[in-house]
Write a structure and sequence with these properties.
By secondary structure, the chain is α/β, with parallel strands linked by helices. It is built from eleven helices and eight strands. The protein has an eight-stranded mixed beta sheet, with helices on both faces. The longest helix is centred in the first third of the chain and has 32 residues.
Length: 319
């Protein structure tokens, strides 16, 4: 009997320690991802090895230098929860009836994630509006929205664009990583304006729950339960949303907006399979481009001609 009691005490203590460890792990994960971050949390090694990255930087620096010489206007809107959200508007060289709204990735900024794509679209004759998501860059906010909150901000930017240009411009939504999840989620709004003609989704995750669970297993070798449940509870309490409140699956099941899904073949940060799943579930006109040898958010830089040609051919069908 004493042996049974001793074993029970040991098991109880082990369970208590495990629970405390899970709670600590969940809180640590929460602090590293949900509040506004002061540094880029995505390792550049997720994009490419050193040799590839050196080549990518040449493309990025050239496009940033080109953009700095462009006419640019700093603009802002107020979100539905009272935050000032900021962006940079670049008009095309000649008056355009098309505009691209660019949304960046996690812990980045519009300028850092979208400068090359913005330069591409400007050369193609599109206006560009490059935004900083909530809790990033110049925009206000204490908590990252991971697409679930940002989809409402995306809709606000669409409405701002239509108010400013009296609804006379066709709108294309572009996003990379978290920004891609944002624009895909925004497509699920029933009252999204009809002049939103197409979406370019580059390496979108399906939901914050899915991508966090993947990183938890890959990097920390931990199961999603109970860490994700605790993390979800903390996020609901502080940031006002849960990781499963909405997903790209919810959006693509109902949207009618054509979507081009793009993903790097070697992306293991946001697994390539997530775009394949989004593509399969999408009920709207759709295309899928998987770029060989490209890591996370690196598809454009790995094969610029293929990326640009695919985007141009896709948009020709809907503009």
């Amino acid at each position: 009997m004493k042996g049974v009691k001793k074993a029970a005490a040991i098991l109880g203590g082990t369970a208590l320690l495990a629970g405390a460890g899970s709670a600590y792990g969940a809180y640590t994960l929460y602090k590293r991802v949900i509040p506004r971050q002061t540094e880029n949390r995505v390792d550049l090694n997720e994009m490419a090895d050193m040799a590839q990255w050196e080549e990518y930087k040449k493309i990025i620096h050239a496009n940033k230098s080109w953009l700095k010489e462009r006419v640019m206007e700093s603009v802002s809107i107020t979100s539905r929860d009272g935050l000032t959200l900021c962006g940079d508007y670049f008009p095309a060289d000649t008056p355009s009836d098309k505009i691209v709204l660019c949304h960046h990735g996690y812990t980045s900024t519009g300028w850092d994630s979208c400068s090359s794509v913005a330069a591409f679209f400007l050369r193609e004759g599109y206006d560009c509006l490059v935004v900083d998501n909530r809790a990033h860059g110049k925009s206000e906010g204490d908590y990252v929205g991971f697409g679930i909150l940002d989809r409402f901000d995306c809709l606000s930017w669409i409405n701002y664009t239509n108010d400013r240009f009296m609804g006379k411009k066709d709108i294309i939504l572009y996003g990379v990583s978290m920004g891609a999840a944002t624009v895909v989620m925004a497509s699920g709004f029933k009252k999204i304006p009809e002049n939103v003609k197409a979406i370019i989704s580059d390496c979108a995750f399906t939901s914050p729950y899915d991508v966090f669970s993947h990183i938890l297993k890959r990097d920390y070798h931990l199961p999603e339960f109970p860490v994700m449940s605790i993390n979800d509870m903390l996020t609901k309490k502080t940031a006002g949303y849960g990781f499963r409140d909405y997903s790209t699956f919810d959006a693509v099941a109902s949207t009618k907006i054509p979507i081009l899904f793009i993903h790097g073949e070697k992306d293991d940060f946001v697994p390539t399979e997530m775009s394949r799943k989004n593509f399969k579930a999408c009920k709207a006109p759709k295309e899928l481009l998987i770029v060989e040898n490209a890591g996370h958010a690196a598809a454009y830089y790995e094969n610029v001609p293929l990326y640009e040609a695919t985007v141009k051919e896709f948009l020709k069908k809907y503009l």
